[in-house]
Design goal:
The chain is an alpha/beta fold. 38% of the residues lie in helices and 20% in strands. It is built from eleven helices and nine strands. Bound molecules: pantoate.
Length: 276
């Protein structure tokens, strides 16, 4: 498995690589969820293709300096995960390699990002779309794999691909969960033991709410279960249209019940699909 730290090294490696090139963009701190994205990329690449993992903690998608500083960066363990799951190459640029100090052009997504996580984190999805577009352009990848766990991110990236006529195929991968139902996330390791033991209530709350027959009851049931925790603080709990991500009460169309919950400084996110 090769490692490229600069754009020039990446280009040299990819010039010699066979296609298709399947990219798995990550910010590192790789867990089983990422491992399954890499395995899916390997399956899609077949015996001929190239699986490339990028590891870059993208500063422009963080709205809180503390969150960026606290983001885990276990590089040697990450490289082990990449190698074990079949990556052919890993791109690990630093901030200066990815962004000029006076960079002034970014991607702006102005509809889907105004809801849910985007409402509380202005600019976050613009930062995600910008770095993902740069990675698509730098790698010339044919396809890229993203987890469905971050469904708003996936929706914003798909919208960017559609609106900017990008030729990259987006391959979604279902959410991977711990055995107690907690959605896997690089943030989970920042939970205290007591918070970690409590956090599966998020998924339990969403599943219980999904059994209700109207929007108001769904929000009430989920709110009560999460609110019953001594650790959890709801950032938002919302039922949205699955296509526009705008708040809805209409259950005759596919919808998503989503929430973000703070455990101390750690913000966890999860959702269930309704009516699919
Ligand atoms: O999902 C992530 O890890 C990041 O948002 C991504 C897509 C790698 C962009 O920095």
């Amino acid at each position: 498995m090769w490692i490229a730290k600069t754009k020039a090294e990446l280009r040299a490696r990819l010039d010699a690589a066979s296609r298709p090139i399947i990219l798995v963009p990550t910010m590192g701190a790789l867990h089983e969820g990422h491992a399954s994205l890499i395995s899916l990329a390997k399956e899609k690449a077949g015996t001929e293709g190239t699986v490339l993992v990028s590891i870059f903690v993208n500063p422009i998608q963080f709205d809180r300096a503390g969150d960026l500083a606290a983001y885990p960066r276990p590089l040697s363990a990450d490289l082990g995960v990449c190698e074990t799951h079949g990556a052919d190459g890993v791109f690990i640029p630093d901030d200066g390699e990815m962004y000029f100090s006076d960079h002034s052009v970014t991607v702006k997504e102005s509809s889907l990002s105004t809801h849910l996580c985007g409402a509380a984190r202005p600019g976050h999805f613009d930062g995600v779309c910008t770095v993902v577009l740069k990675l698509f352009l730098l790698t010339g990848c044919n396809s890229a794999v993203f987890g469905e766990k971050d469904f708003q991110q996936l929706a914003a990236i798909r919208r960017m691909v559609r609106d900017l006529d990008l030729q990259t195929e987006i391959i979604p991968h279902p959410t991977i969960r711990e055995s107690d139902g907690l959605a896997m996330s690089s943030r989970n390791i920042r939970l205290t033991t007591a918070q970690r033991a409590d956090a599966p209530r998020i998924h339990q709350a969403l599943l219980a709410a999904a059994g209700e027959s109207d929007a108001e009851s769904m929000l009430r049931v989920a709110g009560k279960i999460i609110g019953g925790s001594e650790f959890a603080k709801i950032d938002y709990l919302s039922l949205v249209d699955a296509e526009t991500l705008a708040p809805t009460e209409n259950l005759s169309k596919p919808a998503i019940l989503a929430c973000a919950v703070f455990y101390g400084e750690v913000r966890l996110f999860d959702y269930v699909s309704i009516g699919r």
